[in-house]
Write a structure and sequence with these properties.
The chain is mostly helical and about 140 residues long. It is built from 8 helices and 2 strands. It comes from Methylorubrum aminovorans.
């Protein structure tokens, strides 16, 4: 999977592909994700009460800020995902090395100098936020360009 695909998937589909597939197959264990698989049984308020799905609005869009703040609260490091692509990638447990960010820049068609990591990082962060919004994520107004 591409890096941008991994980022979007980890934020907008917080249960990940393996847990989602297990739930669809009916083989999920007794994890909180079970409550996600039960909304069709009439428990309309159950998903909203689970911590990981609290970022989902009734329209189906994922509250990006809520998901990332929840991950940040659980992370022992103080990571500034709002402004740093490196911290955002670390928060999602992805490789945040210069090489990985240059790969992400290639995926997103960055035309600037990839050796100017400061400029590239600012651009990458903006593009990742834009991609999250394009894929149905609810992005805070202060992060939009």
């Amino acid at each position: 999977m591409s890096l941008i695909g991994s980022i979007v998937s980890k934020i907008l589909h917080p249960f990940g592909s393996s847990e989602a597939q297990a739930a669809e197959a009916g083989t999920s264990s007794s994890k909180p994700s079970e409550t996600q698989a039960q909304p069709s049984s009439g428990g309309g308020s159950a998903p909203a009460s689970t911590p990981t799905s609290g970022g989902t609005s009734s329209g189906g869009s994922v509250d990006v800020e809520a998901v990332l703040n929840d991950l940040a609260a659980k992370n022992p490091q103080k990571l500034n995902w709002r402004t740093s692509i490196v911290d955002l990638m670390k928060l999602l447990d992805l490789d945040s090395s210069l090489h990985a960010r240059q790969q992400l820049a290639d995926e997103l068609h960055y035309t600037g100098d990839k050796n100017d990591s400061a400029s590239m990082n600012v651009w990458l962060h903006k593009q990742v936020i834009k991609k999250l919004e394009e894929n149905g994520g609810k992005v805070p107004a202060d992060l939009k360009d």
